[in-house]
Structures are given as C-alpha cells and as structure tokens.
Write a structure and sequence with these properties.
This protein has about 270 residues and is mainly beta. About 10% of the residues lie in helices and about 50% in strands. A hairpin with a 2-residue loop joins strand 14 and strand 15. The longest helix has 28 residues. The structure holds calcium ion. Calcium ion binds next to strand 2, strand 16 and strand 20.
Amino acid sequence: MLHELRRRYGTLVACSVLAALVVTLVLVLRPVGPPPVYTYSVVNTYPHDPTAYTQGLVYSDGELFESAGLYGQSSLRRVALETGEMLQRYDLPSKYFAEGLALVDDRLIQLTWQSQVGFVYDATTFELLDQFSYPTEGWGLAWDGRHLIMSDGSATLRYLDPDTFAVERSLVVTDGDTPIVKLNELEVIDGEVWANIYQTDRIVRISPRTGAVVGWIDLTGLLPVEDRQPGVDVLNGIAWDAAGKRILVTGKRWPKLFEIVLHPAQ
Ligand SMILES: [Ca+2]
C-alpha cells in the first residue's frame, strides 16, 4: 500500500515537472512581435503659452511646472492647468538654455542643454538653492520616486541620485535590436518611462527594468492644422497626474495642451 502511494506520488511529481517545462518552453519559444502601437483621443484641451518652448513638464496638484528653453528666453514656470495662467516665473541668465525638469519632494531640478549645469530650486519660492554638473548634454528629466532619470539625446537613460546627482545606473533603450535615439522629454507613468522622440509625433513607452520598448504612442494630428502658426515647433512635454490618472501633453510653442487617453491602434 505504502509502495503504491509512493509510486503514484512520484508519477504526480514527474507530471508536474513536465508540465512546468512545457509551459516554460512555450513562453520562451513563442514569437515576440513588435511592441503595440497606441493612438489617442483628446479628453480636454487647455490653453498653453505659445511663447513657451517647452522642454520640461511636470504636474502637481492642479498646476504644471514647466521648463521653457532657448537662449535668452529660458525660464522656470508655475502654470494653472485649466486656465494656462502663469502664476510664477523665474528667468534664467541668457547664457543658459533650459531643458528637462523634475519635481523631487519640495525641490525642482532643471537641466540645461549644453552647459552641463543643472539647477535646484525651492519648488514653492523658486529660490535657486544649488547647482550641479554632468558630463553630457541635458535633454529630459523625470523622477521615479528613487532616482532622477535623465536623457541626453542618445538612446541612453541615466539614473541619478537625487541628492548627489551621481550616475548610479545606465539603461539603453531598444526596440528589438534597434537603439532608440533622440529620447527627449520624460515622464514616469504607472511604472513605465515615457519619452518624447525629438522631431517626431511619437512617444515611446519603456520598461525601466530592461530598457525594452513596450509600446509606441502615435500622436499624429494632435495639434489641429489651424493652430500650427509660424513658430509652432515639435511635440514635447509629458506630465502625469498620478491621482487623477490623467495624461497631459503639449509641444514647443504650442497654443494648446491636451489631456489624452490611449487606444490600441487598429
Ligand atoms: Ca515630464
């Protein structure tokens, strides 16, 4: 009797191991398709300052923090989302071209394009508290709760300590075997890193674990033709209202800012 039970138990274990092996093989060998593509619907449209050359965008409690670029025009702004009204502004010295922006607790961290200098501000008063240097160009910046994530125009994202600004990790973003370059403005959304691709209407969704592209968002046609006045530049700027689950996007010198929802493309 005991012998029979042992035999049956042994068979059961063998069957379980075999089933696990089959499942593993199916998962490993299944064809991996290209990442899904998403299109969008506009849920809300808000005013946006058409003189703001948007390089960084962050949402916080009904307001946006915005970093606007260009030499002689660079600024840090606090803007009311619904009205587009500028509530606060700090102008950078004209030798700096402002870039990515992140909110870390009560501090705002702002990059510059080619000066290799970052600025730290009090998020309430916009008082300049500190500055730091980095060896690359500065493009986009985001905060994932532990690290600042920085882009520099290449396919590489760098993870910086939020206090020392030391690089603690690098991540190369790839779609299959192809590195995805020109990663620009950044946002961390539900555990993914989203990046504008400079000079395109696309946002890429990135796995922060592997750097693999997990989706593409095609925002072609987002800014209506009648709003494309001279001087209007490319799509840039992603902000995430985590509590309201709202995706907010705009572009450089765009007169509008949009809340969008995504749909799988057909
Ligand atoms: Ca952002």
